[in-house]
Amino acid sequence: MIQALIILFSIYTAIKVYVSVMQMGYIIDEKRKDAVLMTKAKYQEAANYAVAKEKVSLTSHLLEYLLFIWWALVGFGVLYDFLSQYILESTFWVSIIFLVGYFTIDYIVSLPLSIYQTFIVDKHFGFTKTTPKLFIIDQIKSIMLFLTVGIGVMALLVWIIENFEMWWLYGFVVIMFILLVINFAYPTIIAPMFNKFTPLEDKELQNKIVVLMENAGMKANGVFVMDASKRDNRLNAYFGGFGKSKRVVLFDTLLDKLSHDELIAVLGHELGHYKHGDIWKNIALMTILFFGIFYLLGHLPESIFAELHTTPIAGVKIAFIMLVFPLLAFIWMPIISLFSRHNEYQADKYGSGVGSKEHLVSALIKLVGENKAFPKSHPLFIFFYYSHPPILERLKVLGFDEYHHKDESSLPHDGIFSFIKN
User: Fold this and answer.
1) pLDDT at 383
2) Which residue has the higher pLDDT, 143 or 188?
3) CA 62 from chain center: how many Å?
4) Count of domains for the chain
């Protein structure tokens, strides 16, 4: 069974490596062509950044594969034998400490790559403002969250596995409930642990946002500005909260780059997702994935744990879920992304309706430029990884013709647009 799993994981890794290599080659070829949506200099820089990021991803794929092989052939057995020598009386505590050890080793192995991405790649391309001190503080906060909330969730799951025959079903229900709570509580509880949120001072913009939400049947439960610029220069905005009451969060970097009309169009796009029930559709698709994972795990032959040189205690089962999750998610994510890309078109339609196509187009182009997002990708990369349609396709549906913007002097930031006439 383990040998079959290693073969599957090898195929999975080979596909990811192949897609990464194809993506890098595609971008290198495309950057030699005429620039679109950006000036020539920014187009080249965006291409270089995309290739640099993909090199990091390629390294991450290989590291993930080596770590998987080590856990499957050696790691589980070594960690289990070490712990069972000292905590023989309690399978509960063996499980908890086993999980802590599993996540700690994964964290330590992946940390250098995270540091490289932040302080080498992002620093070189002018994104990150994160200092070593801030990075360490963020890591400490993340570790503290893991030691409190994370271990609490693991302890609950271990207790369920040890006490119920249908543990896989009850565990699935509990984990989905916790993920929903975390998702909706993130803007008000978790995010403030890492960033400062202040009420929007621009009353004119705030009134426009309130009116926008009221027209959509929503209520603005506060409009806040997040100090995203202390870490990097990327632009973003999001909604969060339960039901029809939403907290609006704007990155401070976004306020510096977009006009009021462009912001309204972007927020209108986000509201479109809520109006169309896209959040719940995505949750339903993720629920299917998690149900399948828990079902498979609950019906694994016990011989597989002997092959891992362990016994089927709760902690080993949970760690095994985490070990195979990337493989199962990779199979399911293109399906989720296919639905997601369709939803993005509908949200664009809604956003352009509450604002205007011109303002949504100009906002999207500014987001691409400021985030240095290369506007082209290999079809395979889009299939596996794009939850949003390619930006050129989104703009074309909105009526923007990129072929009229080869000349830097006619780029949208100058207020000149070309729309395809129907």
Assistant:
1) 94
2) 143
3) 20
4) 1
